[in-house]
Amino acid sequence: EDINQDNTLNEYERYFQYRISIRPEDLVVGKNFIADKQVSYPLTRNGKEEKVEWYQFKI
User: Fold this and answer.
1) Considering the entire predicted model, what is its pTM?
2) How far apart are alpha carbons 30 and 54 in whole angstroms?
């Protein structure tokens, strides 16, 4: 990441590595870095609605 946006990666601009479980039972808002969840029912090409779930992770 270029945190200070100077187009260089300085030694003090390090990155962190996280492990996030994406098992269905761990996708709960307020746990496992999940800040929000949105559910949508878009139409597919065959004209049927299909449930889609979006998750916002905040680290």
Assistant:
1) 0.64
2) 15
In 3D space, the residue among 32, 34, 29 whose CA is nearest the CA of residue 21 turns out to be 32
CA pair distance 31, 6, nearest whole angstrom: 34
Whole-angstrom Cα distance, residue 38 to residue 2? 29
**Distance from C-alpha of 28 to C-alpha of 15, rounded to nearest angstrom:** 26
Residue 11 DSSP class: T
pLDDT tens-place values along the chain, 59 residues long: 566 777 776 666 567 788 899 999 999 999 999 999 999 999 999 999 999 999 999 98
Token pair 């090409």 is at which residue? 45
